[in-house]
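pipeline: protein-struct stage 2 | run 1193 | PepSY domain-containing protein
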Amino acid sequence: MRVLTAALILMPSALLAQDLEQTVTAFLAEHGFSDIELVRHSGTLTASAEGEGRVIEIVYNAATGEIISQELSMLDPDAVQ
């Protein structure tokens, strides 16, 4: 978990806006996430994904690629799907 969190923090913050969606999608897929959903709203890009028992949500500044917030949590293995 610490490696993933560090990698998310160290992603380049000066990404070009047009490349942001592709970069985020590729990064999450490379780290075992699927069901990736991207939503643009009011100058932000929110990425949500699940994978390997984890759920992640990252909010980016859509113009700069800078991470505004991020949350990583574990899925409840006892939850009914």
